[in-house]
Every structure is written in C-alpha cells, then in structure tokens.
Design a protein that fits this description.
283 residues, alpha/beta, 9 helices, globular
Length: 283
C-alpha cells in the first residue's frame, strides 16, 4: 500500500509538521532503530580513529543521528527541510558541536569545496525520488544534489546513505545519478535474507576505486555489532580504564563536549547552572 510510505503523501516539509515531528522524536522504537542505523553508517565511513571529523548529516531531522555523531567525538552540520524537526533538534542547545541549516537537499549543497570529512544520511534520500510539483524532476534533483555533495567532500572521503528503496528501479536511479556526479561505490545490504533486519546502505566514495565494506549477516551479527557498540562506549570513558561511563546528557557529559569544542577552537556557550538539568516534558 502506498500510504505506508510517508514520501507518497507529499513533500517532507509538509509531512513533518509540528505534530508528526514531535511524535517521531519521542517514539522510543524509532529512536532505537535510527540510532542503530546511524552507528552503522558511521562505521561504514571508516574515519581515522585519531582524528576529529567534520561531518555532514543530511536529513538530520530531530537530531537522533547527530547525537550519535557527537557521541563519536565528531563535529557536524545538520541539514533538513523540515523547520519543526530542526526546532526540536535545536532544543539541545547545550551541544556546541553542531550547526543546523534549513534547506531542501534537492536544491544542492551550499558549502565550499572540500569542506567535509564525511557525510551520513538516515532515511532521507528516497524523498528526492518523488516530484511534489510540476517543476520538480527527480532525476535532475538527484543529480544536482550529488554533484554539489561531491564538490563539498574532501578527496578520499565517503558518504553513506541508509535508505528504503521502493523497488530496484529506484535504487538504480539513485545510484546512477551518484555515479554520474563523480562518486564510485555501491550498495551494502545488511541481513539480506531477513524481512525485519534487512537494511540498505549506499556507500559512496571520492577518489580512486575502493573495495566496498562487507555487509552484516546473521553469522557476523554478534562480532560486528560488538565492535560498533565498543566504539560507542569508548567515547564515554573518562580516560582511564575501569572508570565509570559518563551518562549522556549529564553535566559531566556536557562539560566534556564543551571542553572538546574549545580545544577545536570553536565558540561555545558559557557554563550555566542549568547545564545538564532535565527539561520539562512537552505535551
């Protein structure tokens, strides 16, 4: 049924209104799935472990994937076409490692050449395959997007897109426009035989031809997922083996992010007595 796919209902800036954005951001099941996919996307970026990356989060939404980027110690720019989603994202104003931009991906990227060390996108690229007005051409919008993305990526970097292809033709359309723009790469399909666990990632590379990462399978799940979880845990350690993990959102966690941003030469908010306090639930 077409109504099972939100991209069939109209443009994302209308679908993700205040009500839908709030439901999306507060749904624990969605948060868990989006977090896991963002972890996998960052793993597929294959970033150097000793470097703080400057990443682009395309279709950043309410900030679920951005939280994962921050947890890995990277700085990021989030781009989304939904103002309500970005407003929810901006509520985490204690995070000095992000910048947010309201923009339609199909209109192209507004960044300087070679700006980013990598890019991820969770559940967003398939929206560009649908025309929501008579002047929109999905093929042209995809090409404009990939061409401008390629330009703002550093050479030898990667962009990873998790998406839900509607059919083989849609996957071919997306990949063909990416390759036409200069990228090389292909699809990595995790758990291809599973109905629920199957996830599709388009791994795009700049520079020379590289071997695609291996997909996860049922047999490799424990080992592979263990590696990803260990990466996530390491960034919360205080620096000495055996010490207790810092809880995300706590004052200590915020202070650690602020210190990291200061070392990177970024402007950060001054420490406040409200840092780390829980906000009241919005209804």
């Amino acid at each position: 049924m077409s109504n099972q796919r939100p991209e069939h209902t109209g443009p994302p800036e209308l679908y993700y209104n205040e009500t839908e954005s709030s439901k999306y951001a507060s749904n624990s099941h969605i948060v868990k799935i989006q977090t896991d996919m963002a972890e996998r996307a960052i793993e597929l970026l294959a970033l150097p472990e000793d470097k703080v990356g400057y990443l682009l989060d395309l279709g950043c939404g309410s900030g679920i994937s951005g939280d994962v980027i921050t947890a890995h110690g990277h700085v990021w720019v989030g781009l989304d076409v939904s103002l309500p989603m970005l407003q929810i994202n901006k509520e985490d104003d204690e995070d000095p490692t992000k910048d947010l931009i309201l923009r339609d991906m199909g209109s192209g990227m507004p960044f300087r050449a070679g700006t980013f060390d990598g890019a991820i996108s969770i559940s967003a690229i398939q929206w560009l395959c649908h025309a929501n007005s008579s002047d929109q051409n999905p093929r042209k919008r995809l090409h404009r997007f990939f061409q401008s993305l390629y330009a703002c990526m550093g050479r030898g970097t990667r962009a990873v897109f998790q998406f839900y292809p509607e059919n083989e033709q849609q996957s071919d359309l997306i990949m063909s426009q990416a390759m036409r723009a200069g990228f090389n790469g292909g699809l990595v399909v995790d758990f291809p035989t599973s109905t629920k666990a199957k996830k599709v990632y388009l791994v795009l590379m700049t520079g020379g031809v590289q071997q695609l990462p291996k997909a996860l399978t049922e047999e490799s799940e424990a080992a592979e997922r263990g590696q990803v979880q260990n990466i996530g845990r390491r960034v919360f350690q205080t620096g000495k083996k055996g010490k207790e993990r810092i809880v995300k959102g706590s004052k200590a966690w915020i202070d650690a992010k602020r210190e990291r941003a200061q070392k990177q030469g970024r402007d950060v908010r001054e420490e406040s007595k409200y840092s780390g306090r829980k906000r009241k639930t919005k209804w």
